[in-house]
Amino acid sequence: MSVSIIGLGKIGTAIISHLLVLGEEVRVWNRSPAAVETMVALGAVPLSDVRDAFTSELVLSILFDDAAVREVITHEAIASATGRDTLHVCLSTLSPSLADELAMAHRSAGLGYLSAPLFGRPEAVEQKAANICVAGDPILIERARACLESFGRVWAVGDEPRQANVAKLCGNFLIGAAVAAMAEATSILSAENADADAFMNLMTETLFASPIYKNYAPSVTGARPLPASGLALPIKDMGLLTTIAAQSQSSSRLLKALCDSLSRAQELGFGAQDWSTALGRSARIASAV
């Protein structure tokens, strides 16, 4: 099977080595050529035009946000597919409305489309430990399964592509809520001059012995900050989920509180940090005032 990768950020580059191991013909496109050259050295085939990606049997796109997807995945690019068996799997976390547009555009062109945003840092993708939320035609999911399972576990969450995007945003909200709760708890302990790290060790070894708490707790307390990844993505994602909640008139008080906390952390100058580090520092500053 020929597979095209559109977008060679940390996730995209981590996926490629797994596909090469499968023996697939991997073709790559990226806006900056340096990343393409690195992947070519591993055995990938370079593409100079994103439209050429849609001549492959499978297209995996991993772009930053709605704006990047609209710029790159144009109607012209979709229409350039030379065969009707092309399947596009979008791994980006997008707004449900854009997922609907993409599904319709692909359907009109006679192409398959799936939304498949994933949970997992680049290290998780490298270790084949990503969790991939997939939604769309079950037959198409089965066609993409082998490639997707080369870097993670596939979780089918619906028959409409937009459902995977909503599921991913809800998952990110649950992660953010956990991080924000840890930040506030440790700030209260710090204000009492208690050992916040010892407390979080207690929690993560007993009541909250799960990856999210174990991975983020040391970063929240400041003991082992995670690599700086910035607040742009979580702020973008929580903004999308806020819009969805408003449209469906769903309760979103906790979501609003998380959005406010992220905005406050950014205003305090922590916008370049991982959200666990940023929320932890912001909460400690608030408790010290």
Cα shape: elongated
Largest sheet: 6 strands, parallel
The largest sheet has its strands arranged as: 3-2-1-4-5-6
Count the strands?
Answer: 9
Instruction: Please give the CATH architecture of the largest domain.
Output: 3-Layer(aba) Sandwich
Question: Mean pLDDT score, rounded?
Answer: 95
Give, in order, the helices and strands.
Answer: EHEHEEHHEHEEHEHEHHHHHH
C-alpha Rg, in Å?
20 Å
Q: Report the helical percentage.
A: 55-70%
As for the CATH topology of the largest domain, it is: Rossmann fold
Q: In the residues, how many domains can be counted?
A: 2
- For CATH, the homologous superfamily of the largest domain is named as NAD(P)-binding Rossmann-like Domain
Structural class of the secondary elements?
Answer: alpha/beta
CATH top level label of the largest domain:
Alpha Beta
Number of helices: 13
Low-pLDDT runs: none
> How far apart are the termini?
60 Å
Strand fraction equals: 5-15%
Quick summary:
The strands form 2 sheets. The protein has a 6-stranded parallel sheet, sandwiched between helices. A 3-stranded mixed sheet has the order 7-8-9. Helix 8 crosses helix 10 (211-221) and helix 8 packs across helix 11 (232-248). Helix content is 56%, strand content 13%.
Features:
alpha/beta; six-stranded parallel sheet; elongated; Rossmann fold; 9 strands; three-stranded mixed sheet; N-(1-d-carboxylethyl)-l-norvaline Dehydrogenase, domain 2; 289 residues; 2 domains
